[in-house]
Give the backbone structure.
Amino acid sequence: MRFDPPLTGWFTHVAWNIDLSLSGPFVRTSVERRRCADLLARLATELVADGNTDTAQALEVTVIPPIKGGPRYDLALLVRARESLADHVTERAAALGLPTPIYKLVARNAGIFGDTDGQDGEILLNHFAGESGNGAAAVAAWKSVSAWYMDKLGVDNSTLLRFEDDAPFLIMNYARIPGRVPPFLLGQLARPSFYRVVRHQLHEVGLTPFPLFARRVTA
């Protein structure tokens, strides 16, 4: 399996809980969230137009698997630029009327294959909790697990973010999945090799996964 050189610059991941309400794992629709999502999509477009941002993705969370202790937010903005834009993004979002975010995280790209941003599809944001000194082992585990997802489920892209040491998560896998979320989840859980390979690899390096699924929002 071929991995590309990591992307340069910084990723900024800002997340809000606007009006999170669940029906099972599915996020219920919300008028207020829809309004804020439109504002966030407009901000993403403006950030790229300003010329200091390489990419900016406004994301609305659609599915949160019931895993205790995981992140709970329903909107996010993921930005890649030459420098950290955490404060700048937060200030711009506040000026549009968005509340204080629950996460304002900064990361470097630790690994990548395929093109996550270049095609439409539902988005996986898989946050991993782990020891801050275990970053190299976490990246190695991501590479091994990525091969399983490509072979078994056809996931042909992934962008791995390694957060700064003070973040609540060690890494986050940002990927576009093939097809819809329910068949994707079933495709994992129904395979014995998911437990034998994926869960075992993550357990060996002390990583706890907290996945969310989202859709891109455009202006």
Summary: The CA atoms of residues 128 and 209 lie 5 Å apart. The beta strands are 10-16, 22-23, 26-27, 53-63, 75-81, 103-113, 123-129, 158-163, 171-176, 208-217.
